[in-house]
Amino acid sequence: MRKILSQYRGLRRFGMLLAGLFLTCSVAFAQSQVSGTVTDAADGQAIPGASIVIKGTTSGTVTDANGNFSLTASSSDVLVISFVGYVTQEVTVGNQTTINASLDVDVQQLQEVVVTGYATQQKKDLTGAVGVVDPEELTAMPQANVQSQLQGRVAGVQVSQDARPGAAPKVRIRGINSFSANDPLYVVVGVQTFDITNLNPQDVESVSVLKDAGAASIYGSRASNGVVVITTKSGSRSGIAVNYNMFYGSQDPGKGPENLLNAQGYMDLQQLVYDNDNTSETHPVYGPSGSLTLPSWAADTDWYDEITRNARIQSHDVSLSGGNSNSKFYASLNYFEQQGIQIENFYERFTTRFNSEFNI
Fold this sequence. Notes:
By secondary structure, the chain is of the alpha+beta class. Helix content is 17%, strand content 36%.
């Protein structure tokens, strides 16, 4: 009986050994050598240094100077092929022994266009100090002019303004550069000017701020205080579109000071002045200094409340754009009104704009 059990245990161990060898051989047979080439999808040029990693592991390799690679992988593995500036690809090995990948350029961060003088360039190609303002940021706050909308939008650009309705603010690019004029040069669709107060902010398509001395190579000494390049909206070649934009608001001056004197208090203060100066004279309202008298018509008037008001601000803009394959046009009409918190103080503006383009 013991002899039979011993033989049974020996056969069992031998079977387990065979099963282990079979699994090892199966794993060994499932892996294979995979090679290939990684190229640029646009021009077919090889990409050296591209990374090829088995997904979920740290095993991988990189391409050589000719874009070639080789590594060991199983049929179920997924190869992650990547390189800086290109869209990452994932390829399942399967039964393939040769895998060639063409990577597309990742253009998501490379297409920001900047208007600089005579032409437009991609921001990645610029070496000078250039600030670009998103058109949606310009119209985020209701303002009377484009200069006010630049406040807090571009690093190195300071905008200061007073409370007068429609007043042009002071724009300083990288501080004060001279003892005289410090205003930047504005270039609106190729036209140079130092005042863009009458430009409708709703017509602005893009704003680029040239902050360094390199702008002088294009515009000369007039660019010594920086340049603000503005392009305006143009028509679309895909049919006709009508847009209407408006906003309406109110500006509250607040309650004002609460420690002002009334009529009686002001007369008492005037009597105190006479007493301290030891003078004798006749006040035009209160009479002789020894016996000041409040006139019968005197009243307690809140002059701050009399000269201030809740001032409205509103803008209405209508634009029409359209075109076809051979031409396009853009027309706009804008009405802007801003009342001052002080009565009889206001700013009102009507602007219209039309541009067109034809292919002859």
